[in-house]
C-alpha cells in the first residue's frame, strides 16, 4: 500500500487524555481515533493488526475443533428473562426498545442467544460435543471508560461456547481450548499467565483468566516465584496454618479502649502487633448475616465468603444493619458474648489463637486474653482471607509474589447454569432428556491489540511482533524528488509485493526526518530506505526491534528480509 493512498494521521504530541502507552501510541501512530468516551474508530493500520490477530484466533480455534458462526448483536429481552439475567446483569447492559415497544439489548455477551440456537436444533447426544465461536463487536455501558482499548464501551471479542453430554467431554474441550489460548497469546508474543479466576456474573465454576503481565493492568495476580502456579488474587487459596505458639492462655479481660475503633488504633493503644487482634466484620450473604473473623493483619476475601455459602451476592453490612443486628457500633463488635443473632465464621489462621484481642460488643471496650476455642462459638473455620505477598505458594513450591495483569482471555466451565434455565436438553442413549453441559471461552481481540502495544514499544513508538504487524516492511525513499531513488523505490515496491511481502511504501513528498520519525512511530518490523546509493543498487535495512541497520544489495534484499522477519 502506498502511504499517500491510505489514511495514517500521525501526531507529534501526546494527547492530553491518554494515560497509558498503548492509548498514546495508537493515537499518535494513526491507528485509531476516539469518537466518544469509550468508542473508537479503527483506522487502516489498526484494522490490519486486528485482522492478523483474528487470523491467529481462527487458526487455533479451528485446530481445536470449533466452528465459526455469527450471531446478532441485537438480542431480544425474552431470552435474557429466560436465563434470569435481564434484571440482574446490571447497568452495563445497554437496553433499548424498538418501534413496537419490544425490549432489546446490545450484546454484552451471547450465552442466551447461543443456548437458544442450539436447543432448537440439537436434540440427540449423537450431535454432542459441539463447539461454536464468533468474532463480533460487544457493547457494555462502562461507568468509567479508560485506558483506551483496555476498557471501552464497544470492543471486539471472540466468544466460543461448547455443549456436552458429560463432564468428561467438557473437561476435554476445556483443556483443548486452554492450549489453544496459550498458543494464541504465545503467537502474539505476549508475556502472559493463565490464572485461576472467579466466574463473576457469568456463573459456573473452574475458570481461568489469561493475564498479560503489565503495570497498567487492573487486576492483581498472585504467582509463585518457583513454579507455574498463578491465580487472580481473590481466588488464590491460602495454605492452612495456625499461630503455633507455646503461649499459656490468659484469662479473658474486658479493657477500656475509648475512641479506639480501627485495628491500627487498638494495636497502638494496647501496645501489641496487629497479628494479635481479631478483626470482626459483619457480612450479608443473600439474606443471611455472618460475622467473619480474620487476623488483624489480614483482609476478608468476599469472593471466598460468597463461594463458601454459594451465595448470589455478598456485601459488608451497613453501620445501620450492624447496629440493628448486633446492637453495637462498628469497631467494637466481636465473637465473645455476642449480643445479636449471626453465624460466626473464622479464617483458618485464627485456629489455635490464644491471648487474642477483639471487640467486647460494647462501645469503648475490647477483650484481651481471648481464646476462641474457649470464649466463642465458632460455626466453622475456613480459608476466608486474601493471600499476601510472602505467603507460601498453595502448590507448596516457593512463595507468593504479586503482579498487575491485563485480562485478555477468560474460559469458564458453565455446567448447566444456562441450559437448565432455558430448557436446552438432549436425549441420551436411553432416550431420557438431560440438560446440556456448557463451557464458555472469550478473548478480547481489541484488548489484545492494546496489550501487545503495552508490551512492545520503546521511546520512539510501537515495535510490532512480525506475526501481527500491519505490514512486513516499511519502504521509503529518503528523497522522493530524486528520480533515481523514486524509480528504485517503485521497482522494489512491486518486486517485494510479488514475492509475498506486505509493504507499506512511504511515497509522500515529505522530508526524510519526518518519514523516519513516522516509521519508528508506526513500528513495522523492518524499514527499507532507498537513499544516496540507489544508483549502485544498495539500500539500507533497519531492524525496528533492535535498531540494527546495515546496507544490502537489491538482489539480496528479498531473501534477507524474509530471513529477518521469519517469513
How would you describe what is shown here?
- With 567 residues, the protein is α+β, with helices and mostly antiparallel strands.
- It has 3 domains: 269 residues, 2-Layer Sandwich (BirA Bifunctional Protein, domain 2), CATH 3.30.930; 130 residues, Alpha-Beta Complex (YbaK protein), CATH 3.90.960.10; 95 residues, Rossmann fold.
- Helices cover 26% and strands 29% of the residues.
- The protein has 14 helices and 31 strands.
- Strands 3, 7, 8, 9, 10, 11, 12, 21 and 24 form a 9-stranded mixed β-sheet that branches. The chain has a 5-stranded mixed β-sheet with strand order 16-14-15-17-20.
- α2 packs across α11.
- The chain is globular.
- The two termini are 19 Å apart.
- The model has no long low-confidence stretch (mean pLDDT 94).
Oligomer: single chain
Q: pLDDT average, as an integer?
A: 94
Query: Per DSSP, what share of the residues sits in E-state strands of 2 or more residues?
Result: 25-35%
Q: How many whole angstroms does the radius of gyration measure?
A: 30 Å
What's the count of strands?
A: 31
Number of domains: 3
CATH topology of the largest domain: BirA Bifunctional Protein, domain 2
Please name the fourth-level CATH homologous superfamily of the largest domain. Answer: Bira Bifunctional Protein, Domain 2
Q: Uncertain runs with pLDDT below 50, 5 residues or more?
A: none
Which secondary-structure class do the elements indicate?
A: alpha+beta
- Note the overall shape: globular
CATH architecture of the largest domain: 2-Layer Sandwich
Provide the CATH top-level class of the largest domain. Answer: Alpha Beta
Amino acid at each position: 500500500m502506498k502511504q499517500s493512498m491510505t489514511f495514517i494521521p500521525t501526531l507529534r504530541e501526546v494527547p492530553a487524555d491518554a494515560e497509558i502507552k498503548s492509548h498514546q501510541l495508537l493515537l499518535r501512530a494513526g491507528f485509531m481515533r476516539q469518537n466518544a468516551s469509550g468508542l473508537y474508530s479503527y483506522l487502516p493500520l489498526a484494522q490490519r493488526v486486528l485482522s492478523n490477530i483474528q487470523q491467529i484466533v481462527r487458526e487455533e480455534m479451528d485446530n481445536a475443533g470449533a466452528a465459526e458462526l455469527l450471531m446478532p448483536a441485537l438480542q431480544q429481552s425474552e431470552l435474557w428473562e429466560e436465563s434470569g439475567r435481564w434484571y440482574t446483569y446490571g447497568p452495563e447492559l445497554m437496553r433499548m426498545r424498538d418501534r413496537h415497544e419490544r425490549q432489546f439489548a446490545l450484546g454484552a455477551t451471547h450465552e442466551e442467544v447461543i443456548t437458544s440456537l442450539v436447543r432448537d436444533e440439537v436434540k440427540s447426544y449423537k450431535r454432542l460435543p459441539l463447539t461454536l465461536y464468533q468474532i463480533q463487536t460487544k457493547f457494555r455501558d462502562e461507568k468509567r471508560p479508560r485506558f483506551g482499548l483496555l476498557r471501552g464501551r464497544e470492543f471486539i471479542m471472540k466468544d466460543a461456547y461448547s455443549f456436552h453430554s458429560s463432564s468428561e467431554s467438557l473437561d476435554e474441550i476445556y483443556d483443548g481450548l486452554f492450549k489453544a489460548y496459550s498458543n494464541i497469546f504465545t503467537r502474539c508474543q505476549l508475556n502472559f499467565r493463565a490464572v485461576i479466576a472467579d466466574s463473576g456474573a457469568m456463573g459456573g465454576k473452574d475458570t481461568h483468566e489469561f493475564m498479560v503481565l503489565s503495570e497498567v493492568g487492573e487486576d492483581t495476580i498472585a504467582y509463585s516465584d518457583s513454579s507455574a502456579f498463578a491465580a487472580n488474587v481473590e481466588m488464590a487459596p491460602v495454605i492452612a496454618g495456625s499461630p503455633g505458639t507455646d503461649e499459656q492462655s490468659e484469662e479473658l479481660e474486658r479493657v477500656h479502649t475509648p475512641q479506639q475503633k480501627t485495628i491500627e488504633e487498638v494495636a497502638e493503644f494496647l501496645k501489641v502487633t496487629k497479628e494479635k487482634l481479631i478483626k470482626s466484620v459483619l457480612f450479608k450473604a443473600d439474606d443471611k448475616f455472618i460475622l467473619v473473623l480474620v487476623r488483624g493483619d489480614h483482609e476478608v476475601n468476599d469472593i471466598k465468603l460468597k463461594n463458601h455459602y454459594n451465595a448470589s451476592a455478598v456485601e459488608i453490612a451497613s453501620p445501620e444493619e450492624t447496629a440493628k443486628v448486633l446492637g453495637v457500633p462498628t469497631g467494637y463488635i466481636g465473637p465473645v458474648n455476642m449480643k445479636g443473632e449471626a453465624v460466626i465464621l473464622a479464617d483458618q489462621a485464627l485456629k489455635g489463637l490464644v491471648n487474642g484481642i477483639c471487640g467486647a460488643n460494647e462501645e469503648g471496650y475490647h477483650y484481651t486474653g481471648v481464646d476462641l476455642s474457649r470464649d466463642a462459638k465458632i460455626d466453622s473455620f475456613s480459608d476466608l482471607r486474601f493471600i499476601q505477598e510472602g505467603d507460601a505458594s498453595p502448590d507448596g513450591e516457593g512463595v507468593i509474589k504479586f503482579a498487575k495483569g491485563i485480562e485478555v482471555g477468560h474460559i469458564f466451565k458453565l455446567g448447566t447454569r444456562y441450559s437448565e434455565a432455558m430448557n436446552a436438553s438432549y436425549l441420551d442413549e436411553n432416550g431420557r432428556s438431560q440438560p446440556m453441559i456448557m463451557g464458555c471461552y472469550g478473548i478480547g481481540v481489541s484488548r489484545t491489540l492494546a496489550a501487545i502495544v503495552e508490551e512492545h514499544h520503546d521511546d520512539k513508538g510501537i515495535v510490532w511482533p512480525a506475526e501481527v504487524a500491519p505490514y512486513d516492511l516499511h519502504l521509503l525513499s529518503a528523497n522522493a524528488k530524486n528520480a533515481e531513488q523514486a524509480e528504485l523505490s517503485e521497482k522494489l515496491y512491486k518486486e517485494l509485493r510479488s514475492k509475498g511481502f506486505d509493504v507499506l511504501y512511504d511515497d509522500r513528498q515529505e522530508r526524510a526526518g519526518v518519514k523516519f520519525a513516522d516509521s519508528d512511530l508506526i513500528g513495522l518490523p523492518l524499514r527499507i530506505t532507498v537513499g544516496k546509493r540507489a544508483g549502485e543498487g544498495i539500500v539500507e535495512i533497519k531492524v525496528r526491534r533492535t535498531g540494527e541497520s546495515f546496507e544490502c544489495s537489491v538482489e539480496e534484499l528479498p531473501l534477507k528480509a524474509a530471513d529477518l522477519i521469519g517469513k
